[in-house]
Model the fold of this input.
Amino acid sequence: MGYSAKKTLKEVSVAISFIFIAFVARWLDFFYYNSPDKPGSLIFSKLVGSLLVVLAVSILNLKWGEVGFTKKNFLRYLYYGLILLFVYIFLFYFLKPYLFYLFKFSIPEFSLSFSFPYYDRNYILELSMLTLNMVCEEGLFRGILQTRLKKIVPLFYAILIQSILFGLWHTTWALYNNQGFFSFYNLGYFLYTFGFGMIVGYIFEWTGTLTIPIIIHFFAGDNPFSISFFKDGAENITSVRDGMVVFAVSLTMIIIFLFISYTLLKKKVIIKKRK
Done:
């Protein structure tokens, strides 16, 4: 094994090790501090994860632009990020649950709702947590891990691996809510976060910046304004058939969104060829 290959394997090992450390901090947040029930929930683990991103960049001697944190063409990516944000909300918050209910032979009751929380201390803590979350999760999974993995495996597998780990990262919610690791609740949550990881992984690869992934992650993935189009909220998986329907519909939405994203970004000539 040559020096370059050894160096890359070391970088991947550092990335995975740091994700594990961040996961331990996340576990403490959930099950020791009971952080989800407190203002600024999970802020401890997000802070740890963000510091680990900074440490990884330093240890691996990387530039911030290499891991997606760059100001280059920021306003342009911000503009297209907002366009794709609305596309994402339509596909995953409206069309996906609507199709799910149709496959269950029922018509969902339309009821648009969203909230603008009061700007009190708790909301400031919540915004702080969400901001740190962008550095923590996008930095660790896409910026550090994906960019290191793609040096030793094909791009698809690099995105697939980080997406699987990203999905597993969120299984703590099922355990915290006493749903069980193999529950339908956890299956639905895993499928959603895994699919999200695939989407933003490809967008990051195409653009070379985390600007668009962060916009979609912050406003749609974390949904700070509690956007909902239906009275019953998101679809609930209660059977194997439901799981299969959600998987099929989710896969369709992912493909459609990636197609729209690629077409839009390519047409505007802002897809960046990355070495």
